[in-house]
Structure formats: C-alpha cells, structure tokens
Design brief:
By secondary structure, this protein is α+β, with helices and mostly antiparallel strands. The protein has 6 helices and 3 strands, in the order ααβααββαα. It has a single domain, classed as Winged helix-like DNA-binding domain superfamily/Winged helix DNA-binding domain (Arc Repressor Mutant, subunit A, Orthogonal Bundle). It has a 3-stranded antiparallel β-sheet with strand order 1-3-2. Strand 2 and strand 3 form a beta hairpin.
Length: 107
C-alpha cells in the first residue's frame, strides 16, 4: 500500500517528532513563529516548514495580528488521531489493572 503524502494525511504529518512538539506547544495558546523558534530551539526556516505541513493537513490554524501570524492547534482536526488511539484504550486499562494487582500482591 502506498504511503499518503505528509501534507495530505494527519497521521503522516504527526509522524515527525518536531511537528508533535509544535502541536503540543500550540495546544496551550496561540503563538507567533518567533516564540515557537525560541521555545523549541530550532531554526525559523525549519519551524516554518513544519507549520506549513501542519496547516496543509488542517492541524494548525493561523490568523494575522498586525504584522505577525499567530498559530494555534486545531484540536478538532486531531479527532481522528484521538479516536484511533481509543482503539487501544481497553488494552492499556487492562495492563494497568494487572500492574496494580501485582503491586498489591507484593505488599
């Protein structure tokens, strides 16, 4: 099966760790590119490229405020990722229950 393009698929877009860092940073509040650059310690051209990919798939929204663009995470666009991860929620709850039971047995 062919892999979807990074700029057309949410899952491929978030496969890159720096993009996940940007989404996490922007989830709390909207920020200009300069703030993202300083917070993550990576170059402005790199941040701009990552933001373009995230905007192309709809994970990041932007608005102009005077001379700067402010970016924020589009949480609704993350819904497919959230729903997919819920598939594994039952497994993790079961694993955590087992860990708890084993810890309690050792007391």
């Amino acid at each position: 099966m062919a892999r979807a393009a990074t700029n057309s698929d949410v899952f491929n877009a978030i496969a890159e760790a720096r993009r996940r860092d940007i989404l996490t940073l922007l989830a709390a509040t909207e920020r200009p590119v300069g703030d993202i650059v300083r917070a993550l310690g990576i170059g402005q051209p790199s941040v701009s490229k990552h933001l373009k990919v995230l905007r192309d798939v709809g994970l990041v929204d932007a608005r102009r405020d005077a001379r700067q663009m402010l970016y924020r995470t589009n949480l609704d666009a993350l819904r497919p990722v959230h729903e997919w991860t819920q598939t594994f929620d039952r497994y993790w709850r079961h694993q955590l229950t087992r860990v708890k039971e084993r810890a309690e047995q050792r007391r």
